[in-house]
UniProtKB/TrEMBL annotation:
Composition skew (Acidic residues), residue ranges: 398-427
Keywords tagged on the record: Coiled coil
Top-level taxon in the UniProt lineage: Eukaryota
Protein species of origin: Rhizophagus clarus
Region (Disordered): 383-427
Protein name: Uncharacterized protein
């Protein structure tokens, strides 16, 4: 009996030991699980915090985008105010100076072409009134003689181009003389009124800068910016068709008709279609002359100017262009300047936008005594024509048209062929 009880006891003890081990293992496993739960809870808290951070980040990003959009709008608005107030400190149009200069040059060259096409080359199926042309050449002091047999059409063409421009200038100067339209409220006097009132305001702002104590940049620069903005607008829309009347601008219509009638005195275009096409060019020609010479030049800072070269001035390739041989330049002078030089003056010189177009001839060598005799004859002629005239002598003797050696060849040593290489066959 005892051995059997002993075995049973051993079994019980073994079972108890195994159970204790299992309980210990389970207890350890429970602890691990609890630790894992703690970690998971911690991670869950961290995840919740991350979610909150993500939400905050989204809100922050949205706010940033909103602020950027507002900032962009504010920058645009500020830019408008800066433009209006003249905050910019560079008035050589540096932002657009290159583009503006290129465009101005391009527009002037296009005006050259328009003027040439309007005057025409005076050749196929075009009759030239030589008598009227002779009078015109004499008015411009030209020394080359023309005739029915030798009309020298390139010279006549050059003089007509000069004449057309100057006649447009005469009409424009009268139009822009505001006292002629001071009480007018007509729509076609708008450009004249704008120029007059803008000039007054610009002068007043200049006086504010010079006569009132202060040293701020805005007041100093506003006269320049005001001038530029006004003439930019006029150079863009000035002399366009009138909306309220649904018609051409009166000045353009009247002046272009005057130009056509004037040109018909000097040349008659036989072909009806060609005549109609050429006459139609007058409107754009007048409008572009006004925009360039009266508006676009005044946008520049300092303001650009135009300059006519006088008869007998020596040829200078830097400021003039025409047809000549390089070897002959030292012997050439201006017969007539058909299009002025466009330039912008500076304290140390000037910048040339486009050189003048000139028709040249060889200078005439005459001794001083003969020149004085000619001048006395001219003065007597003036007294004979108009007894009330007060003669003035404003001639300069220089190497361009005199031979100071005193030697006389007894005749005018001149080349009346005009520009070197420029004959009647030139287009």
């Amino acid at each position: 009996m005892f051995p059997r009880s002993k075995n049973a006891l051993c079994v019980i003890q073994t079972t108890i030991m195994m159970t204790s081990q299992e309980i210990r293992k389970k207890s350890e496993r429970n602890k691990l699980v609890e630790n894992e739960n703690v970690d998971l809870k911690t991670k869950l808290k961290e995840c919740n915090h991350c979610n909150k951070l993500e939400e905050q980040l989204k809100e922050t990003r949205s706010l940033i985008q909103s602020l950027k959009h507002k900032n962009k709008n504010l920058e645009a608005e500020t830019s408008k105010y800066q433009s209006a107030l003249g905050i910019a400190t560079n008035f050589d149009l540096n932002v657009d100076e290159h583009d503006d200069s290129v465009k101005l040059n391009k527009d002037i060259l296009e005006l050259h072409d328009t003027l040439e096409n309007y005057v025409t080359n005076l050749k196929p199926r075009i009759d030239v009134n030589i008598n009227e042309a002779k009078k015109l050449l004499e008015n411009y002091g030209c020394q080359i003689k023309i005739s029915e047999e030798e009309p020298n059409k390139p010279l006549i063409k050059a003089v007509l181009q000069r004449h057309v421009l100057e006649e447009i200038f005469v009409e424009a100067n009268f139009y822009f003389d505001f006292k002629n339209y001071k009480l007018s409220v007509k729509d076609h006097h708008l450009e004249s009124s704008i120029v007059d009132q803008a000039t007054t305001l610009i002068d007043l702002m200049g006086k504010l800068n010079s006569n009132r104590l202060g040293n701020d940049e805005i007041t100093r620069l506003i006269p320049i910016r005001l001038r530029q903005q006004v003439y930019i607008a006029l150079g863009t829309r000035g002399f366009n068709d009138i909306i309220s009347q649904d018609s051409k601008h009166n000045f353009i219509d009247i002046t272009s008709n005057k130009m056509n009638k004037m040109m018909n005195k000097f040349r008659r275009i036989k072909d009806k279609e060609t005549r109609k096409r050429v006459n139609a060019m007058a409107e754009d020609l007048v409008r572009n002359v006004l925009r360039i010479f009266y508006f676009r030049l005044r946008i520049q800072e300092p303001m650009a100017q135009y300059h006519w070269f006088k008869n007998d001035e020596k040829i200078n390739k830097s400021y003039m262009k025409g047809c000549w041989n390089e070897g002959d330049i030292k012997d050439l002078v201006v017969e007539v300047c058909s299009f002025p030089m466009i330039c912008r003056p500076y304290s140390d010189g000037f910048k040339v936008f486009t050189p003048a177009k000139v028709f040249s001839r060889r200078f005439i060598k005459r001794n001083i005594m003969r020149k004085l005799t000619d001048k006395v004859g001219n003065i007597k002629k003036k007294f004979t024509q108009n007894g009330n005239s007060v003669p003035t002598l404003q001639d300069n003797y220089d190497s361009n048209d005199s031979d100071d050696s005193g030697e006389s060849d007894g005749s005018d040593d001149s080349d009346d062929s005009g520009e070197s290489g420029d004959s009647d066959e030139t287009n």
